[in-house]
From TrEMBL:
Pfam hit, one: Phos_pyr_kin
Pathway annotation: Cofactor biosynthesis; thiamine diphosphate biosynthesis; 4-amino-2-methyl-5-diphosphomethylpyrimidine from 5-amino-1-(5-phospho-D-ribosyl)imidazole: step 3/3
Protein name: Bifunctional hydroxymethylpyrimidine kinase/phosphomethylpyrimidine kinase
Annotated organism of origin: Prauserella muralis
GO cellular component: cytosol
GO molecular function, one term: ATP binding
GO biological process: thiamine biosynthetic process; thiamine diphosphate biosynthetic process
Top-rank lineage group of the source organism: Bacteria
Known catalytic reactions: 4-amino-5-hydroxymethyl-2-methylpyrimidine + ATP = 4-amino-2-methyl-5-(phosphooxymethyl)pyrimidine + ADP + H(+); 4-amino-2-methyl-5-(phosphooxymethyl)pyrimidine + ATP = 4-amino-2-methyl-5-(diphosphooxymethyl)pyrimidine + ADP
Alphabetical keyword list: ATP-binding, Kinase, Nucleotide-binding, Thiamine biosynthesis, Transferase
Function: Catalyzes the phosphorylation of hydroxymethylpyrimidine phosphate (HMP-P) to HMP-PP, and of HMP to HMP-P.
Amino acid sequence: MTPTPKTALTIAGSDSGGGAGIQADLRTFFACGVHGMSAVTAVTVQNSLGVQGFSEIPADIVTAQIKAVAGDMGVDAAKTGMLATAEIIQAVAKTLDEVHIGRDAQVPFVVDPVAASMHGDPLLREEALDAIITELFPRATLVTPNLDEVRLLTGIHVTDERSQRAAATALLDFGPRWALVKGGHLYDSPRCLDLLTDGTQYIELDGPRYDTEHTHGGGDTFASAITASLAKGLGVPDAVEQGKRFIERSVAESYPLGQGIGPVSPFW
Ligand code: PLP
């Protein structure tokens, strides 16, 4: 018999194209050697050309999924991706407290504040961003916004290392223990420089930029790889370092698929 692996839970939306969302999260958990579980928040109609629409899952069904797995199998770390509505966010926050997931409960919780697809299609109702800040950030071990999300959340337009540092500090004011400001969308930089901070340590993670347009699901994959490492018991700086190496290889091996933007790859 195989020994029971660590478990990771994703609370996120489905991508019918299989490149992002829970599909990306679950295959990343698998590739990282943890047992993946999911609470589906929304079903998107999506392919390589973008998101054609979505339907959210009733909030009580989202929370029932979380309670079902937490009560039986246990959760070693959790993450959120697409949450769709303020109602779902509020219900998820309440349930995480009930099942003892979150920074204060010692079960690591990663919030990837997904607002839109890389095509610009909304994945979160506009009024719900405030709920992510007030309901989820104070419960988070780590938040992982990209630069577009940083601008929505803090109003800071990151253009260089100085503004990246200011943005990371501003994110901490919302209450997460750690903030990771991903620099991958700073396209005039030849490197992908990410900044991780808890307010005392400022850790720079440097990596190559790969010349590919096929990065669909990259943010989800990065956050999931970090979550898997946290489930295995790594501290936040080590988990983020491992996640960075995982997403680098995934982007390096990304592939064209369909007529639009192909996914980052789990094949390496
Ligand atoms: N679809 C779903 C369900 C997602 O969760 C995400 C990202 O979190 C996306 C699409 C967008 O992925 P990308 O921005 O990589 O296209």
